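Severity: low
Component: inverse-folding endpoint
Summary: output formatting inconsistent between runs
Steps to reproduce: submit the following C-alpha cells with default settings.
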C-alpha cells in the first residue's frame, strides 16, 4: 500500500523506478517500452505531476504490477471482476477494467484499489483540510483506518498557512498537512528551512517535526548546521541535529559537524 513511513505506509510514486531503470526489461517487452516512453515524454512536455503524466504513469504501474495489485484486491472486487470484467483473462486487463470506471465499483473495491494505485482523477478543484486539491489530482486511502484520506498526488502547487509548497506527493494527518516539499526556502515559526533534498514534516499540532535547515540556526543554547536535518518535538525543542560549532554539552566534548540527540 502506498503510504509513507510516518503512518506505517510506503511511498507510492517510487515504485516505478525499478521499471524505468531496467533497460533489459524494457528491451524484452515492447508494450512496456511504449508505455514508459509515453510517460517519459509526458513528463518532459508537461511536467512530472501534470495530469497527462499521472495518467500515463498509472498505465505503466498497472501494466508492470498488475499481478500483485490484483492479488491484493481480488477478494474485495470479486463481484466487479465477475460481472464487469468476466470476459477478460489477463491480470492487466482486469485491473485496467476496474480502474477505468471507478464510479460503478463498490466502496470496498474502489477504496482498496485506491489504497494501492490511487483513486480516480478529480475533474474539478476543491479544498481538503485547508489544502487546494487541484484538477487532475487523486487521493490515497488507508483501509486500516476506515479508508481515511492519508495522501494525495497534486497536479499543482499550493499555499497552506502562508507557506508555498510544490505539486506532487503530500501526506495528511488528522489536523491538516503532515508533509510536503517546500516550493523554495521559507521561514516557518522563525526558522528558515531549505527546499532542497527532503520534504518538511509536521506534528499533529502543526509545528515542524523534521526538515533541512537553510542556514546555521540557533535553537536554545546551540547553533545547528546549515543544510543538515533538524528534528524537533511538538514544542519546538531539538530532538536531534548537527552542530555548527564546538560545544561542551553535559560534560561531553562535541565538535562542529557532530550529530547530537537529546
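Observed output (run 2 of 3):
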Amino acid at each position: 500500500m502506498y503510504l509513507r513511513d510516518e503512518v506505517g505506509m510506503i511511498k507510492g510514486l517510487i515504485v516505478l523506478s525499478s521499471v524505468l531503470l531496467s533497460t533489459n526489461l524494457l528491451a524484452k517487452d515492447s508494450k512496456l517500452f511504449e508505455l514508459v516512453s509515453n510517460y517519459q515524454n509526458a513528463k518532459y512536455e508537461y511536467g512530472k505531476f501534470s495530469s497527462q503524466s499521472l495518467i500515463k504513469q498509472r498505465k505503466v504501474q498497472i501494466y508492470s504490477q498488475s499481478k500483485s495489485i490484483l492479488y491484493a484486491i481480488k477478494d474485495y472486487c470479486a463481484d466487479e471482476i465477475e460481472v464487469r470484467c468476466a470476459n477478460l483473462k489477463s491480470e492487466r486487463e482486469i485491473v485496467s477494467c476496474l480502474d477505468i470506471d471507478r464510479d460503478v465499483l463498490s466502496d470496498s473495491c474502489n477504496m482498496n484499489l485506491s489504497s494501492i494505485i490511487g483513486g480516480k482523477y478529480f475533474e474539478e478543484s476543491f479544498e481538503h483540510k485547508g489544502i487546494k486539491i487541484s484538477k487532475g489530482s487523486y487521493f490515497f486511502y488507508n483501509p486500516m483506518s476506515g479508508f481515511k484520506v492519508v495522501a494525495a498526488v497534486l497536479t499543482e502547487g499550493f499555499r497552506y498557512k502562508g507557506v508555498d509548497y510544490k505539486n506532487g506527493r503530500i501526506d495528511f494527518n488528522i489536523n491538516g498537512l503532515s508533509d510536503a516539499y517546500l516550493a523554495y526556502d521559507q521561514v516557518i515559526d522563525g526558522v528558515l528551512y531549505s527546499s532542497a533534498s527532503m520534504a518538511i514534516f509536521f506534528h499533529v499540532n502543526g509545528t515542524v517535526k523534521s526538515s533541512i535547515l537553510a542556514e546555521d540556526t540557533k535553537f536554545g543554547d546551540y547553533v545547528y548546521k546549515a543544510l543538515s536535518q533538524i528534528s524537533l518535538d511538538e514544542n519546538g525543542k531539538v530532538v536531534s541535529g548537527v552542530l555548527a560549532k564546538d560545544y561542551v554539552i553535559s560534560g561531553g566534548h562535541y565538535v562542529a559537524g557532530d550529530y547530537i540527540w537529546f
